Amino acid sequence: MFDGLDALLLARIQFAFTVSFHFFFPAFSIGLASYLAVLEGLWLKTGKQIYLDLFKYWIKIFAIAFAMGVVSGIVMSYQFGTNWSVFSDLAGPVIGPLMAYEVLTAFFLEAGFLGVMLFGMNKVGKKLHFAATLMVAVGTFISAFWILSVNSWMQTPVGFEMGANGQFMPGDSWAAIVFNPSFPYRLVHTVLAAYLTTAFVVGGVGAWHLLKDRANLHARKMFSMAMWMAAIVAPIQIVAGDMHGLNTMEHQPQKVMAMEGHYKSYPDGAPLYVFGIPNDDEQRLDYAVGIPKLSSLILKHHWDAPIEGLDTIPDDEQPPVFLVFWAFRIMIAIGMAMMAVGVWSLFARWRGKLYEWSWLHRAALVMGPSGFLAVLCGWITTEVGRQPYVVYGLLRTADAASPLAAPAVATSLLAFVIVYFAVFGAGVWYILHLMHKPPHTGELGAKRGDKGPIRTAGITPGLTQDPTDATTHDLSGTRHEPEEAP
Asked: Greatest CA separation found in the chain?
């Protein structure tokens, strides 16, 4: 049934599907780890129980999101060897070490302190537990650092030499590869997007509970903190996005041409198109609605600055304009809406109505999942806009795929779709279930199983047992009665 399909297209769809699922979880956990560190730090500084309650409320959600992010990320790594083996062979000498550094630094750091963060609050001192929380937050940032370095190098490849067999070999300086021209802009833009994503999730949850009970002090606190983040970070993100766009204009001009819908060149100033239907076959933007010369002002800071269009790019090097054009506009629209909600919250705070204005709470609730859609659209803009290259200007996507038959790729794609929606759908449902419960005084936080971890030998260290008696005694001699069988 899959014989008539294109194996390359199926491989691209499979990677797009899995990375889209994966991207949601790190975009949330990066910001949430930092939020947890802030909550615990405020609790230690002020001693107020409300911060500890919110910490324990959100740490349960973080644990699930973090676990799903790890699992979904592992699946993507396997695809480099199955569907994209040529890419792995040719680019592996450059990107392989960077991905290994991510495991050796971020993953080990997170794994080493995550257990202490989740279950160690009553086992270690307050300061040591706070240090563990900070290490997990730092680990999520370091993970983003290395992964974005890899992706940025694929967008703006530098610092390499071509081997005799066509491989990309590291040059004299690893710093040139790691800190490639687009990396600083991409890192700032993505991390800020993660913080905004988390802020609007927290704000949406707070708004949900305020709509049901305005007197809930925990909901008030989380809503207030989220709105501060929205009001401060959303404008900064817009500035960072503009700088990232100017960097993209310098290094990947056809991507910006597709983002702007500029099929033709404009020698006397290019319009900013608000709406249009890209028509790649006819090389024009149908039903275009634009603001004259505004694109030139934004991209080159001058009304009459000339802007080149896709008519200067060979047809076989042009990205698919429709996806890039509309993904970019959706991302921008969400960013402006985020800033509007932030400004609205500042006005409400100034009027003393932050917890009273129901329409602000409804707007925040609607905007709760908006960050996920924004980061997905940003990823589509970045990755689809790079086509037809997987290593920009040097290795085409069509030349990077494994020599697989379409049925093999289609079968694994179908399996991924079924398993992902079942497993991660259940995880997301449980997260929403936890969010539906209002935060309250005396939150319990993450819990271990009643009997602790399962051990292969069936022996729990620190416990001794008389083989003729079901009663156990710990090493201090304290008696423990046997538990009832379920």
From this structure: 94
Residue 229 counted as domain residue: yes
SS3 396: strand
Q: Which domain holds residue 315?
A: 214-398
Whole-angstrom Cα distance, residue 323 to residue 199? 27
Rounded CA-CA distance 394/90 in Å is 11
Residue 284 lies in a domain: yes
Digitized pLDDT (tens) for each residue of the chain, 486 residues in all: 555 678 888 989 899 888 888 888 888 999 999 999 999 999 999 999 999 999 999 999 999 998 888 888 888 888 888 889 999 999 989 998 998 898 888 888 888 898 888 888 888 888 999 999 999 999 999 999 999 999 999 999 998 998 888 899 998 788 899 999 999 999 999 999 999 999 999 999 999 999 998 888 999 999 999 999 999 999 999 999 999 999 999 999 999 999 999 999 998 888 999 999 999 888 899 998 989 989 988 888 888 889 999 989 998 899 999 999 999 999 999 999 999 999 999 999 999 999 999 999 999 999 999 999 999 999 999 999 999 999 999 999 999 998 888 888 888 889 888 988 888 889 889 999 999 998 888 667 666 554 555 554 444 444 444 444 444 444 334 444 443 333
Tokens 């270690």 correspond to 124
Give domain status of residue 141, yes or no: no
Q: How far is CA 386 from CA 10, 153, 209, in A?
A: 18, 12, 42
| Phi, psi torsion values for 479, nearest 5 degrees | -85, 140
Q: Is residue 227 part of a domain?
A: yes
Gap between the Cα atoms of 436 and 457, Å rounded: 40
CA distance 71 to 420: 11
- DSSP state, residue 307: B
Q: How far apart are the first and last CA of the chain?
A: 48
Q: Which residues of 457-484 are buried (b: 16+ CB within 10 A; e: fewer)?
A: eeeeeeeeeeeeeeebeeeeeeeeeeee
**Number of domains forming the structure of the chain:** 1
Contact status, residue 346 vs residue 176, Cβ threshold 8 Å: no
Eight-state DSSP code of residue 266:
B
CB proximity list for 315: less than 8 A, separation 6 or greater: none
pTM for the whole thing?
0.87
Pair 285, 273: CB distance under 8 Å: yes
